[in-house]
């Protein structure tokens, strides 16, 4: 076998190895960008972010429980402002009616 033939066969073997590596890389990239994989990655990222947020809030609640309770109470009162206002109006009307009946 001549040196040129040996170099040629070595080049062919190297080219085939690089081609196989390219095909493997392409298949790996195709698997990484498949819709199912992207969907799962997005779900995992959202779940991890939510868990981090819950842990952060839990730590803050442990640091300042009174402030968090006050804020939650204020938010609850704000959310229920219309029913509370309606209840107070009904109570006011009842009290006024009672005073008018006793005044007659």
TrEMBL record:
Domain of life: Bacteria
Name of the protein: DUF3618 domain-containing protein
Organism from which the protein derives: Sphingobium lactosutens DS20
